[in-house]
């Protein structure tokens, strides 16, 4: 059975379409070419609504923490070396291992209350 050049070109075009369709349907991941956070804040006292951690890799030599502020819904970068950054990074790693809700990481820590002298009594100074 002889195939004409027209049949071969149609078959080639069909194969090319199928290949491109399969490549498009397959999961493609965005890989940044450089660090997303050129400048970071060491400590931030504002309330946060969400955060994302980008692990270090070939694109950047350090972990990146991108937080969304509650006040103006702006995204800023938080340094993983600061106290809040370390806490968010630790919580993120714990979530990745065990699963969980990342909203727990955004809650502010409460300070421990001082012990009162006696049940229900306040210390008074005279």
From TrEMBL:
Keywords: Cytokine, Signal. One of its GO terms (cellular component) is extracellular space. It comes from the Eukaryota. Residues 32-92 form the Chemokine interleukin-8-like domain. Coiled coil: none annotated. Residues 101-126 have a biased composition (Basic residues). Residues 100-126 are annotated as: Disordered. Pfam families: IL8. Residues 1-23 form the signal peptide. This is Chemokine interleukin-8-like domain-containing protein. The lineage of its organism: Eukaryota, Metazoa, Chordata, Craniata, Vertebrata. One of its GO terms (molecular function) is chemokine activity. One of its GO terms (biological process) is immune response.
